[in-house]
Amino acid sequence: MPRTVLITGGTSGIGLATAARFAADGADVTVTGRRQETVERAAKELGVRGVVCDATETGQIEALAARLGDTLDTLDVLVNAAGGLPPAVTGDGSPLDAVRAQWETNWAQNLMTAVLTTTAVREKLAPGGTVISIGSIGAERGGGAYGAAKAALAAWNAFLSAELGPRGVTANVIASGYVENTNFFGDGMTRERHDALVAETHNKRAGRPEEIAETAFFLASPGARHITGQTIHVNGGAFTTR
After folding, report:
1. Which helix (H) or strand (E) is 46 found in, with range?
2. Number of other residues whose CB lies within 10 A of the CB of residue 127
3. Residue 178 annotated to the active site
4. Cβ distance 8 to 32 under 8 Å?
5. 240 part of a folded domain
6. What is the pLDDT of residues 129-141, one digit of tens each?
7. Please, where are the H alpha helices in 108-208?
């Protein structure tokens, strides 16, 4: 019987690569994203199920959980890949209002997406299942609001692992370094920035989405059943402190 897999933020970058890896293994994969057109494109490309869901919105997450409840008896793998680097906040408010909005947006996109989605579907997680959340090297190297949210993700994951462990479910974070061919930096990636990030690695290259996907696939494998509550760094040896 094929494994059932839910991947939030599964329409591009790391999420899309992870969905492709599990689909190639014959899993029954569902991907989510915020926009109808990207969800439809990813679902068609991979031959998987696609659901429009903004994982920062509780009503949409509840609808997703209800929909999964109608189609799946259990869930074997949950990958929380939704998130990203929000644009800088601008507007007519005070400087403090802008700081608060920036932090709250990062918190919502990079922590609460995982917390809310996992909470909504946790009762469906089968023994032998796993929860994998995509973190960042920014959690340990001056990542500002984004890094703080990813650091909180790792702390929450340790708590989640302790809660789910007695049920035979593992929970881990993959902290990625610089990964090219994603939408993370938007228009903010320059040649100079790319070269500087690559120079920090030991193997002198950027990571690839497929490498994060392979790490997620391993963490969901029988050989990784005693790995839980951990943050797995996949960054080419880039320094984790600055």
Report:
1. helix 36-46
2. 9
3. no
4. yes
5. no
6. 999 999 999 998 8
7. 113-121, 144-164, 191-199
CATH number for the domain that contains residue 118: 3.40.50.720
- 239 within a domain of the structure (yes/no): no
What is the value of pTM for the model shown? 0.95
Among positive and negative, which fits the CA dihedral 21, 157, 203, 225?
negative
The Cα–Cα gap between 40 and 50 comes to 6
Quote the CA–CA distance of 46 and 218 in Å, as a whole number: 20
Is 242 a domain residue?
no
Which helix (H) or strand (E) segment is 134 a member of? strand 125-136
User: What domain count does the chain have?
Assistant: 1
Q: 16, 27, 146, 215: which one is catalytic?
A: 146
Find the helix or strand (DSSP H, E) in which 214 lies. helix 209-219
171-199: pLDDT as tens digits: 999 999 999 988 887 777 889 989 999 99
Structural domain of 107 = 4-234
Which residue's entry shows tokens 């890094």? 147
Q: Is residue 80 part of a domain?
A: yes
Angle at 16 between CA 14 and CA 21, to 5 degrees: 95
